[in-house]
Amino acid sequence: MNxxxxxxxxxxxxxVPMSDFYSNDLTSHLDxxxxxxxxxxxHDFFLCVLFxxxxxxxxxxxxxxxxxxxxxxxxxxxxxxxxxxxxTPEGYIFFHTQNFxxxxxxxxxxxxxxxxxxxxxxxxxxxxxxxxTSLEPIFKTINKEYHNNxxxxxxxIASLINAAYIDLARHYNISEPLKDITSVTYIEALRSxxxxxxxxxxxxxxxxxxxxALNITSKHLNRIVKATLGxxxxxxxxxxxxxxxxxxxxxSKNSLSSIAQILGYQDYAYFSKVFKLKTHVTPLEFxxxxx
Length: 291
Hints:
Elements lengths: L5 E2 L13 E5 H7 L8 E3 L2 E15 L2 E5 L3 E5 L4 E17 L1 H7 L9 H4 L6 E3 L2 H18 L6 H23 L8 H17 L6 H7 L4 H12 L3 H19 L4 H7 L5 H12 L3 H8 L1
Parallel strand pairs: 1-3
Antiparallel strand pairs: 2-7, 3-7, 4-5, 4-6, 4-7, 6-8
Helix pairs in contact: 4-5, 6-8, 7-8, 9-12
């Protein structure tokens, strides 16, 4: 089966031997990876990028975001993205594995930050000029630490990215205020649900399966999803299926009927009906319009 290329950290930098972290200034990064940054691809790591100059668009999982000075983007493993630029960009970028962060902060999880908490939260943040000026030195210092062989290198980088993430989360919560949620338990349940959906969405489409996996009733699971996202459990499952179908339709060479089967639909007509219900176009119309 042809799939979207999945890139790992080792493919980006061979000069500095760290298999769980990478950093660069954008000019150098884009120059070294000019053959594929403009093509849809996935990563198996977390990505954070700050633009200090430049313009263009950043497409993440079929949603388009404007690039401008002060733009910050956050990607989780598995998301599809690519960039196109109208003017030359500048800034900083870093990647890391989940273990890199959580090894140094054993009592913290990346999902504590709103931009990594849920796929439903926007991956884009737009800083004003003062905020950008304040945060840029942290990104610059991270990059300096990465490209030098100082003692306690990993510890310093981990501390710096934690500081950057905290400041970015503060700005994010102001620009994208989260809904008031009455129970932390709901937040944890939603995180667990999204992880389980990500594993089983191709074969399991019923809310009852996921409720059983979480040891709660279907009714209570729906209450959690409704309170946190304003959706039903079935909506969440179907949206994950539709997202993957879009990725495969556009970025693989599989036939539409094969894609339906890959996603657990033996009846292509039914898959097409579900796809159109959610996107208002058929899979074939989507493929043609995207091309």
